[in-house]
Amino acid sequence: MLTIVFNVILLIVINMNKTTLEKIKTSLLKEKSELEKELAGFAKKDDKIKDNYRSDFPEFGDSEEDNALEVAAYSDQLSIEHTLETKLRDLNKALKSIADGKYGICQHCGNPIQEQRLLVRPTSTSCVDCKKKLKGEA
Length: 138
Fold this sequence. Notes:
This protein is mainly alpha-helical. The chain has five helices and two strands, in the order ααββααα. It folds into two domains: 17-102; 104-138, no CATH class.
């Protein structure tokens, strides 16, 4: 029975409109490029940890005021860096699942994620019903 359910789900994913899937992939690749450019503006790619960047500590001067500004700017950069790295990881996971032929399957229930949801949020890993349950809305 499990094999039949898996095969049905696999057929749904395979039969997802190829134009839609290509549109999603193109969108993901474009956003990935934009994120990498934004990160490169204030951080260096970490060669040891995949999808990780290291923010450069700014140097404004030697006065106490300059030092305080440096710390504040660095703190802001770390926060932005973390947010962008998280988005980049999600994008890479989605691109990998497309390449592996597993894109669009809910990680919680194993059912297909609605195509419209994937068009709006291409990094989604859960269907609407499971997301509502996770958020306590169902």
